[in-house]
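for the record, two folds in this file. i put them one after another cuz i was lazy. first one right below, seq on top, structure tokens after. the second one comes after a little note so u can tell where it starts
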Amino acid sequence: MKHAIFIIFFFCIFLVGCTTAENSDKIPTLTVVTHDSFSVSEGVITKFEQDNNVRVVFLKSGDAGVALNKVILTKGNPLGDVFFGVDNTFLSRALAEGIFEPYVSPNIASVPDSFRLDETSQVTPVDFGDVCINYDIAWFQTNNIKVPETLEDLTNPIYKDKLVVENPATSSPGLAFLLATIAHFGEDRYLNYWQSLKDNGVVIASDWNSAYYSNFSASSGKGSQPMVVSYASSPAAEVIFADPPRKDAPTASITGKDTCFRQIEFAGILKGTQKEALAQKFIDFLLSKSFQEDIPLQMFMYPVEPKAALPKEFSAFAQNAEQPAIMDPKMIAENRERWIRDWTEKILK
């Protein structure tokens, strides 16, 4: 009798387990292809999953350029349902490849026109950030030297050997700074400007980590350069991650006309997805208040939604450029590789 009861009990557990697994299998998965820097708070994404009865998987695929290449190579048989992270330096190429399904989110209405660069509505703007020159406040105060205000100022001998930039062929902020100089000086003069920077001892690092954490004097205290190409949000990050804690930022950004380049990141629904309705809801979610207000402390970018509240550290220490350098994404797509090649031949050789 006990044996029979045990069999019935075991069968019931097995049946419940199967039913649970079966119900679990019915929850669809939405795959979001993105770059390695993407981040979102667990609570924010969990709320989206619960509201839409979906499980979201993030497929991180390298930096923005590498991730886009992977998506292009797999078009027709997409790696996922949504792609997040194509920026305005690669936008025209992405649109020309026809990898997205057009979609106009109802949440786009409040996003300023300056971020809505795609008239075909294949991609939706999500965040933005300014690549600027950051400087070591204490170094300039100690040495009683005025902080440069323009790109032209950087060629002054007083700043000789004091600037580190990233290689535009291997670094996203390095490319952004190169584009700022082209936008400001024009194609016929930007290489002459770079030669002047070279003559003034500009240091070229392979990537942002090396430039910021090895060369920049404010980050390690041991670097030789008190100026570095970084992000306008970097001073806020210095406060947020300070150990021991501090109430002031050791760095600030140079934000004069054309000294910064504005990066805008977009997301789009990948053509060929079998979950288009869910993908549309995810695009809506990216423009929602919860996600937009999560962006600054997760990815250190700014939300495109003007009403999204910013962390107090951003309001106090981060700076947006009032007149950032801008360039038509189509012009970037048509000339990017040539500009990088010409820069490499002129400056690195």
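(here's the note) second protein begins now
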Amino acid sequence: MKIDVIYKKKSDIDKVDFSNIKFGKFHSDHMFEAEFSEGTWKNFKILPFDNISVSPACTTLHYGQTIFEGLKAYKDKDDGILVFRMDKNAKRFNVSAERMCMPIFPEKYFTQAISELLVVDKKWIPNKKNTSLYIRPFMIALDPFIGIKPAEKFKFYLFTCPAGNYYSEPVRVKIETEFTRAIKGGVGYSKTAANYAASLYPSVLAQEENYDQLIWTDGKTHKYIEESGTMNLFFVIKNTLLTAPLGDTVLDGVTRDSILALAEDLNVKTEVRKISVKEVISSIKNKTLQEAFGAGTAATIAPIKTIGYNNKDYNLPNHNSNSLSNKFLNLLDGIKYGLINDNHNWIIKL
């Protein structure tokens, strides 16, 4: 893949306070663009970050045929660029593409596009603790056609933005028992805009009640825990690490997968199984729940301090340096910043 590069004349980097980075507020100078038509990908470009133009009849605007991904790049102590699990994100992107009737973007294109864009915008990658460069690949359908059918023309884009912590402190979450994020047979396992649009209204209602996020339950009975709005979920009950199984209603989180691998390294007893709301609430009441946390690319590890259920708040034990979530966070950070050995070959160094 040959990528043409058009450089921005004047950088916007001076507009960013790198000592206080707001997640997703500022975008780096450049973006990547590729076009799919007549059955092939073509016109690969890195160009200045700017608005894009589409037809008012664009398929994406009317029927939501769009997917995206999220991953991060880091700086090591030698100013090298480290990218975490880029191959895993490439594979998941194409799982979403298949579900949404969109063309596969070859993994070798995905990794090359990210690598070359990061080299062009290297100065945008923060080098302070708890900072990174967030990478957003996405694909949209372009056909100017009012009719429900898969499109034939698409564009793939990449842009990046410097990022600090997504959550600055342990979070308050509410178990959702009325609204549904995803249902069996649907698109819940793919990163498509429809999943997130459907979650906005109940999330706003929860925020009005002073919760940071929702815990989504199964759409049929609302008896079983699935995931949170921005994270997969983990519970430590009686020294056992629990998380919900994957399926067509739960996203195959990259951080989730990494934690399960690290848990095996640490010989932590782990169970991937259905977790009932009743089990979680009972374990809080009888004090066998030791901690709960979310895991995701944006949030990394987000300790949970309060779980709301049926108009009652349940406060969880305080997290400390010996918490399992803290151990996972330190290991993940050590690998991502090149401070400890990457025994799983998760890091690509550019």
